[in-house]
Amino acid sequence: MRIDLHTHSTASDGTDTPAELVRNAERAGLDVVALTDHDTVSGHEAALAALPSGLTLVRGAELSCRLDGVSLHMLAYLFDPAEPELARERELVRDDRVPRAQGMVRRLRELGVPVTWEDVARIAGDGAVGRPHIATAMVEAGVIGSVSDAFTPEWLANDGRAYVEKHELDPFDALRLIKGAGGVAVFAHPLAAKRGQCVPESAIADLAAAGLDGVEADHMDHEPATRARLHGLAGDLGILATGSSDYHGSRKTCRLGEHTTHPDVWAEIAARGSGSAPVTG
Fold first, then answer.
1. Each residue of 235-265: pLDDT tens digit?
2. Are 38 and 169 contacting, i.e. CB atoms less than 8 angstroms apart?
3. What Cα–Cα distance (Å) separates residue 247 from each residue in 6, 82, 127, 252?
């Protein structure tokens, strides 16, 4: 089995529609794919409606969190999307995305970057607006060569010159909410230092003690040594280690299935989730 548990669609900051994403997942030879848009589940129904025969869809989301001033992301799988407390927190984060993005555009313009809010809104369309949309506008303006070039201290990296904070969950609250909705929680790309400051490994241990199910070890932003370190840490803490592409369509260079999750780990995630079930086309 080939299992990719971290992808994005146009419901947040990917370039594939949910329907295109599941069709592309089938073409990429995946057996299981998770749709984990940022702080939203709005792409799930369209993905289900287009689900190819034989492909299993895992409904999820990537939740924005912050611990001691450091941003981090929590992947939530198989939770009940209608559970009111978690739904309310997702809405709070989404509502803050527009003023936050507008603030980053203002800072970029103060730095001489010729992007406008209209540019960013056009690129985001109906998706939950985020930094990749702003980065795409910067590419269109000829300021940088690729979206990844924007995620540096010079521009949009955490605490970068044009960075603006947004409403984010405390990760321990996120764990409580995910578990309360019957879901499974995996810390996304926890040691991706190229994205900015990371929480210490002691914080991962604290999260594991509070119910964290796993860490995303195999990821494009982790060097081989970091991946090995995370697999070892997961073993020491008694939690799962996953692998995923973090696919964003053409907005990033990663390919569907570039990194995958072992079938035994996926089976354990599926067994733990009780808020919603995987769906096979």
1. 999 999 999 999 999 988 899 999 999 999 9
2. no
3. 7, 26, 15, 7
Tell me which amino acid residue 85 is. Answer: E
Report the distance separating Cα 192 and Cα 220, nearest Å. 9
Burial class (CB in 10 A: 0-12, 13-18, 19+), 83: middle
Nearest to 59 by CA among 104, 93, 22: 22
3-state secondary structure the chain: CCEEEEECCCCCCCCCCHHHHHHHHHHCCCCEEEECCECCCCCHHHHHHCCCCCCEEEEEEEEEEEECCEEEEEEEECCCCCCHHHHHHHHHHHHHHHHHHHHHHHHHHHCCCCCCHHHHHHHHCCCCCCHHHHHHHHHHCCCCCCHHHHCCCCCCCCCCCCCCCCCCECHHHHHHHHHHCCCEEEECCCCCHHHCCCCCHHHHHHHHHCCCCEEEEECCCCCHHHHHHHHHHHHHHCCEEEECCCEECECCCCCCCCCCCCHHHHHHHHHHCCCCCCEEC
CA distance 276 to 58: 9
**pLDDT tens digit sequence for 200-241:** 999 999 999 999 999 999 999 999 999 999 999 999 999 999
For residue 193, the model assigns a pLDDT of 87
Cβ(21)–Cβ(7) under 8 Å?
A: yes
Residue type, 267: A
Its pTM stands at 0.89
Report whether 150 contacts 137 (CB < 8 A): no
Say if residues 77 and 269 touch (Cβ distance below 8 Å).
yes
CA 38, 43, 47 angle in degrees (round to 5)? Answer: 130
Q: Are strands 240-243 and 214-218 parallel, antiparallel or unpaired?
A: parallel
